[in-house]
Amino acid sequence: MPRLRLRLMAALLGTLTPVMVGCGADDDGSDQGRRPSGAHVTINVPADAPTISAAVSLARPGDLVLVAPGKYHESVKISTARITLRGASRDKVVIDGRLRQPNGVVVTAPGVAVENLTVENNTQNGVLVTGSAKAAAGMPGQSGGYDTGDEPVTFLKSFLVSHVTATRNGLYGIYAFSAQNGVIEHSYTSGSADSGIYAGQCKPCRIVVRDNIAELNAVGYEGTNASGDMYVVGNRLVGNRVGLTTNSDHQEKLLPQQDAVIAGNLIAANQQAATPEQADGGWGIGIGVDGGTDNQFIRNRVAGNSNAGLVITATADIKPDGNRILDNTFAANSVDVGWTFPTATKGRGNCLRGNELRTTVPARLATTASCPRPARSPSPSGTWAKPTAPGGIPFTDVAAPKRQPQFPNARTAGATAVPAVPALPDTAGVRLPPTSLLAEAARVRTS
């Protein structure tokens, strides 16, 4: 063990009061003789360790790394299981990449919680949670791609990202790739040049994305090849270029995307010009389904999107089949629901039921494609006039976020126990967002 680490550990054990949680040794037994058996400690930054990375290197499973307000110019890599990394103040603990590093926080171990801090100015991602060694090394994402070549799919199992602000990052704000059994909640993302929140290459995902705000991104939420118990519930996706997409993409493994639940979200005014421009030029769309299959869209409020509220289309060779649009409210979109397919790739079995809507392309979809629909029944296709997307702005120029809610009792709460598998939402209890939320959405100026 390096001398610096020994000195830091000695200082820690001389000044900290351990919290006794059991009578056995720590998971790896590495602290035998240096701390009481089974003890978990709080490592304070900078009081006990000068940097976040130094504190993380000292931490053992069950420990809390608690970070005091300040700007930290480092990329934090967490490879020890069940560590909690938490800021004492969400807006005042800032991990700032200064456009010199790809990632703010990289999590490669299970059971890790990242809470109550801000990550900004990274060339790729604010927070990256992954089981892929290539992704962790910053190899994918150089030009917006995610191809990890012949690397076998390895999942990171169990994670939590909560009360995190991720702003002005070059690709993704919060990025879960090749990860399962996790929760992204109560977080805010803006200024992402690809998407604010991303889940990709997981099957079954068992991931819950809930109660987040994504605005001023190229895309608010994106799920690529994210299949099986993938829940996006109760989020506010307003004032991006595109609100939400769920799609299949050959750049990632585990094709095709299928079986996601998108429920109870406010998805509005997604044609904001003062945002980074995504490579594929998406604009003015609330929800986009591109080659996704067997997804459910339930009780979302989709309003004021200048191209379309919900679009179903196909990739060059992957059909969108069996998507169900149920009990949503569409209002003030140029087209509420539009289906458009390449000639050679027609979707099948897509259907609608119980929605409040005004216009569809093709016309009368609510009647001609009513649920239930036979699985092999061809879905009709049409076209409509689409607005021209304005040029974007550099992600570094996106407006700074307002203060966001704090993690409760951040300084005193103790470490967070991340469950091996999160509790999955019961969609029967997910409500349609109230109309009153549109008043706040209307404050986002659109072009």
UniProtKB/TrEMBL annotation:
The keyword Repeat applies. PROSITE patterns: PROKAR_LIPOPROTEIN. Residues 160-325 form the Right handed beta helix domain. It comes from Streptomyces violaceusniger (strain Tu 4113). The keyword Nuclease does not apply. It holds the Pfam family Beta_helix. Residues 369-389 are annotated as: Disordered. SMART domains: PbH1. Residues 1-21 form the signal peptide. Residues 369-381 have a biased composition (Low complexity). This is Right handed beta helix domain-containing protein. SUPFAM superfamilies: Pectin lyase-like. Keywords: Repeat, Signal. InterPro entries: Beta_helix, PbH1, Pectin_lyas_fold, Pectin_lyase_fold/virulence, SCF-Subunits/Alg-Epimerases.
